[in-house]
Amino acid sequence: MESIADWANDEKLAAEAMARVAPDAAALSEEEVTQVNLDLQQATGTILGVLPEVMALREKIVKDLPAFDIAHIDKLEDYALALRFAHAAYQTATQPPDDLRDLSNEALALRERLLADAKALSLRNLLDPRKLESLKGANGIQNVAQDLQMLSQILQESWPKIQGKSATVAEELQAASRIGTRLTRIVGVREQSPAQEAAVIEQRQRVFTLMMRAYDEARAAIAFIRRREGDAESITPNLYTGKGRPRPANKPSTDGPPATEPTSTTQELAAITPEAVAAAVAAQKGGSAAKSRS
């Protein structure tokens, strides 16, 4: 079974990736930023899924396309992880108030179940009862969120000893960590001003722009080096199949509630062909040769 500790690291990995790509996102001009018009969970999942095969071709890309900026491939994983982080922040900032109430009720019920099981396990000397003394209590969303994180960690640490000896299952520990993290983020974002909420929306658009630019470049390079095999599309599929091409984003106003991002209905994204890449590479090599003769 996949380790719950490994799953819990996803949030941290995404946050660290966001910190690494923040300078690239900030460096984009307003004209370069494009609006989000994809299912981001599906898009980032696809990119992370094909990344091992893309990285396996990295050396050949460097060899066959010396003019290609390999940073597009080297940073692609960070861009995808950072976009997941930015998307979660966006969802939090724009979540209706009723959703917070429902989530809080679910969190409170889960806390009570996990705490009851933890106390029962401690009575049977399967769990150190002193670890439960630092719990904050059920008064207040922040306390509930923190307790869920702590209970998830306490039970995970003792999982080899307690598995199957209580009603708690692994999925509940995953849910506790998820809900605790989400509640903490929701409360934090909602304590900020509308300008901060607008910044969250713009952040998502900027990271989306970085990811799509890098992925398009990776697709172009692979289309060239795999032109004879004819399998480039299966290695790096077109994320916009049946969808519109991204267009420049409207900059969110800081004078009022942040504007939502409309769905694009523009023309279908043109396919990246090996011929186009080959022509570009030939032009680059020709220019370099002419320069060396002058």
Mass-distribution shape: elongated
Briefly note the structural class of the backbone: mainly alpha
Rg (CA only): 24 Å
As for the number of domains, it is 2
For the terminal residues, how far apart are their CA atoms? 64 Å
Q: Output mean pLDDT.
A: 80
Number of strands: 0
What about the largest sheet?
none
Low-confidence stretches: 1-8, 251-278, 283-294
Helix % is 55-70%
Number of helices: 12
Order of helices and strands: HHHHHHHHHHHH
What fraction strand?
Answer: under 5%
Which structural traits does this protein have?
294 residues, mainly alpha, 2 domains, 12 helices, 66% helix, disordered C terminus
Explain this structure.
It contains twelve helices and no strands. By secondary structure, the protein is mainly alpha-helical. It folds into two domains: 4-95 and 194-293, no CATH class; 98-183, no CATH class. The relative contact order is 0.16. The model is unreliable at 1-8, 251-278 and 283-294 (pLDDT under 50).
Compile the SSE list and pairings.
Blueprint: H1 4-27, H2 40-56, H3 58-64, H4 71-74, H5 76-93, H6 97-123, H7 141-157, H8 159-162, H9 170-190, H10 194-225, H11 232-235, H12 274-293
Helix pairs in contact: 1-5, 1-9, 1-10, 2-5, 5-9, 5-10, 6-7, 6-9, 7-9, 10-12
Brief account:
The protein is mainly α and 294 residues long. Helix content is 66%, strand content 0%.
